[in-house]
Input
Amino acid sequence: MPSYRIAAMGGDGIGPEVIAAGVEVLKVCAERDGGFTLEFTDFDWGSDYYRRHGVMMPADGADRLRAYDAILFGAVGAPDIPDHVTLWGLRLSICQPLDQYANVRPTRVLPGITSPLRNVSGPELDWVIVRENSEGEYSGVGGRAHKGLPIEVAQDVSIMTRAGVQRIMRYAFRLAQSRPRKLLTVVTKSNAQRHAMVMWDEIAAEVAAEFPDVTWDKMLVDAMTMRMVIRPQTLDTIVASNLHADILSDLAAALAGSLGIAPTANINPERDAPSMFEPIHGSAFDITGKGIANPVATFWTASMMLEHLGEPAAAARLMKAVERVTADPALHTPDLGGRATTRQVTDAVCEALRQAND
Ligand code: IPM
Ligand code: MG
Output
């Protein structure tokens, strides 16, 4: 029987609360399935660790994670530490060395959730955003000189490589091909950014030739925001650069009803290092410790993790249990306009899993 080793890292803010809920639910998933086991190891890296040690994680942190089959990650970011320190110190320092270059963000309107879009009842909005996760605007290349002087200069350089663009395009086309509509939209800004984004477009067209059964089109990122709002049903799989997809995925989450339910997976498609699964919502210090964080995003990403580990039946069962729970407004947390607690939602999902009759 396969046994998977999971690194559980709550991180900051509500991260530890939702990860604890996720671990609990995953344990029930394994029990209910009976075909695999999960072994969790807790990691206390994050802002508290930083206050004690001056770093967000040990220098060999990313390497230590290689021993695991997957990483379940909560959130990072604290009010008293600059964001670029916390984010680069933990999340981005895991994604880049472990080459989790495909960031996958499914967006659907789950049962019981209301989209702010008047014409969307559910099926009209069913997308997967593929975000380039290793380079582009987040390459970390740049610098500052003459700090504080009138001649101060600061640069963030967006780097795109042929190899990097090719591999994310292939990933996106393959994903689009696996979905019923076989439809991909490539987001770009090659009208204004005339070097890297032009290469991005060229490579998209080259890779498209390898996938003749996938219908694809190209959209400028600004026009894309309008299309997502006005004609959501015309989109299915979407691929975009690191920053473009960062922005579009928040819009997508809002259009699907709440950032509290949006999941993400940082995938290493070659599987030469573990992939990392996390809710998108972040640390949410305003509600930390109140027991009202929405654990649904973590449950959804846990389902993505099971799928990635090769347990599709358990993944589907978990997603079905989540949907049974979101369908009941009495089990909505405050971000969805309800009054339920993290505990109540978690118990309800565990119960739905135990009752699952497949
Ligand atoms: C996300 C987040 C992160 C990002 C932040 C927290 C650095 O917004 O996962 O979308 O921009 O990548
Ligand atoms: Mg974001």
The longest helix spans residues 15-33. The chain has two domains: 1-101+267-358, 115-256. The chain has a mean pLDDT of 96. The first strand starts at residue 3 and ends at 11.
